[in-house]
From TrEMBL:
InterPro entries: N-reg_PII, N-reg_PII-like_a/b, N-reg_PII/ATP_PRibTrfase_C, N-reg_PII_CS, N-reg_PII_urydylation_site. In nitrogen-limiting conditions, when the ratio of Gln to 2-ketoglutarate decreases, P-II is uridylylated to P-II-UMP. P-II-UMP allows the deadenylation of glutamine synthetase (GS), thus activating the enzyme. Conversely, in nitrogen excess P-II is deuridylated and promotes the adenylation of GS. P-II indirectly controls the transcription of the GS gene (glnA). P-II prevents NR-II-catalyzed conversion of NR-I to NR-I-phosphate, the transcriptional activator of glnA. When P-II is uridylylated to P-II-UMP, these events are reversed. Pfam families: P-II (PF00543). Homotrimer. It comes from Microvirga thermotolerans. GO terms for molecular function: ATP binding; enzyme regulator activity. One of its GO terms (biological process) is regulation of nitrogen utilization. GO terms for cellular component: cytosol. This is Nitrogen regulatory protein P-II. The modification O-UMP-tyrosine is found at Y51. Belongs to the P(II) protein family. Keywords: Nitrogen fixation, Nucleotide-binding, Phosphoprotein, Transcription, Transcription regulation. Gene3D superfamilies: 3.30.70.120.
Amino acid sequence: MKIVMAVIKPFKLEEVRDALTSLGVHGLTVTEVKGYGRQKGHTEIYRGAEYAVSFLPKLKIEVAVPAEIVPQVIEGIALAARTGQIGDGKIFVVPLEKAVRIRTGEADADAL
């Protein structure tokens, strides 16, 4: 089992969710986050004054999936989240040692 974390642009959430659903991923967690990568933020003008926005709004999506479908999940997220512009985001994959469904007590792959 693996946890796939993706940081994406907020307006791409529905497309990513649809891509994951089509792969059979039934649950995901979404968190509103702020951050920056290579673009290091940007400048905006408000009431004639220019100011720097250092941290840009993003969404972090986390899904727990069986290890066998990780390549498809990565490809699905990448295709759905891509705009071709700087700041499209990143995908991280980390091992998942144990999962337990609280309601039923099912463990590991059965809990997903």
